[in-house]
Amino acid sequence: xxxxxxxxxxxxxxxxxxxxxxxxxxxxxxxxxxxxxxxxxxxxxxxxxxxxxxxxxxxxxxxxxxxxxxxxxxxxxxxxxxxxxxxxxxxxxxxxxxxxxxxxxxxxxxxxxxxxxxxxxxxxxxxxxxxxxxxxxxxxxxxxxxxxxxxxxxxxxxxxxxxxxxxxxxxxxxxxxxxxxxxxxxxxxxxxxxxxxxxxxxxxxxxxxxxxxxxxxxxxxxxxxxxxxxxxxxxxxxxxxxxxxxxxxxxxxxxxxxxxxxxxxxxxxxxxxxxxxxxxxxxxxxxxxxxxxxxxxxxxxxxxxxxxxxxxxxxxxxxxxxxxxxxxxxx
Length: 331
What we know:
By secondary structure, this protein is α/β, with parallel strands linked by helices. 25% of the residues lie in helices and 25% in strands.
């Protein structure tokens, strides 16, 4: 048997491109005691990958040159010499962008695919869904009747935040980069309002849709939209910083907020969310989200690309806004 894997060939300057990656095929070695072999079926493509390609350590160490590109992946165990894992079980974890992965079981999650199709466990029931769940509920602490504004709202994290906020009785406003994505937010996700950041005056729209201010701002984008949101905070507002996808390709010249003193005048809170802090709570959160999906309260959307050879071009879609829904690569 052979394994084909996407390796990080060199570190990108600016946007990642196919020149930063190589495909390598090699024989799969025999399993040692305590190990298992996983056939990977789906690979998650996430904005955090751009940061993982940098040298050094932030909340997680950068991928080494020549190593398999880090990714959350899911698949079926096809051989096992580990008594805690059986052939035929589905698992997920940081298994990398490859066909097969040998694991000692560390960091693996056993999946109940009766809760939803396998790809859901990399999206709505996986890291992005958990980021939305804990970022909103633990950091934002929404109360019924409050107004929630979400940047990058048509992505898997933003759309999930908005749908959970609606379940909690909030008024929800989202920004996205096309009329089609705005229609998706209001017609499928149940948002109250959607703002096309490319054609609308965001500040004017926020004043119209949230005349008493924004109680929770969930930021996936960073840059100028963070400044606009800060200028429209309600008293006691909570700001959750999830990411800054508008800045990832040039972190050396990151746009810093000019309106940060609005946190003071709003008597507000500015928080960051790293989802790995909540690993022990993931199973219960995934069960609750799965129940909401079954009840028709949350509507996941996926954008599926096939083939490891398309990994580089698919990854680029995250930063150009081409994807529509959770971006997943099938193997």
